[in-house]
């Protein structure tokens, strides 16, 4: 699983101009990146708060509130990117955050 290039595709609203992508060297880095995007949004919404906390439910609600989010993960065995939906992203996020907590 390590070092599998991952491209996260995201669309924040129904407006097609909000489509964007981020690429990462690994699935783990992609999960960190998704958390960072959410944390930036929280800071933008709460500029006066110095300490902002959230739980996995809040992060899931953020992901579900996007018009679209998916991830393309490179599979070395077939030399191609495999698509993954937002459910896959949420499963990987919880696994990733559990690893960080230990």
UniProtKB/TrEMBL annotation:
Q: Write down the Pfam families for this protein, in alphabetical order.
A: ER (PF01133)
Transmembrane segments annotated in the record for this chain: none
Q: Does the keyword Flavoprotein apply?
A: no
This protein's record includes keyword rRNA-binding: no
Record's keyword terms, sorted: Cell cycle
Give the matching Gene3D superfamilies.
Enhancer of rudimentary (3.30.2260.10)
InterPro entries referenced in this protein's UniProt entry, alphabetically: EHR_sf, ERH
Function, please?
May have a role in the cell cycle.
What family does the Swiss-Prot or TrEMBL record give for this protein? Answer: Belongs to the E(R) family.
Name the record gives this protein: Enhancer of rudimentary homolog
What is the native source organism of this protein? Salix udensis
């Amino acid at each position: 699983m390590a070092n599998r290039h991952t491209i996260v595709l995201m669309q924040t609203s129904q407006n097609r101009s909000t489509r964007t992508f981020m690429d990462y060297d690994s699935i783990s880095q992609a999960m960190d990146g998704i958390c960072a995007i959410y944390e930036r949004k929280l800071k933008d919404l709460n500029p006066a708060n110095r300490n902002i906390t959230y739980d996995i439910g809040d992060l899931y609600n953020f992901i579900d509130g996007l018009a679209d989010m998916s991830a393309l993960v490179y599979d070395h065995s077939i030399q191609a990117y495999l698509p993954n939906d937002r459910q896959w992203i949420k499963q990987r996020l919880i696994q990733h955050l559990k690893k960080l907590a230990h």
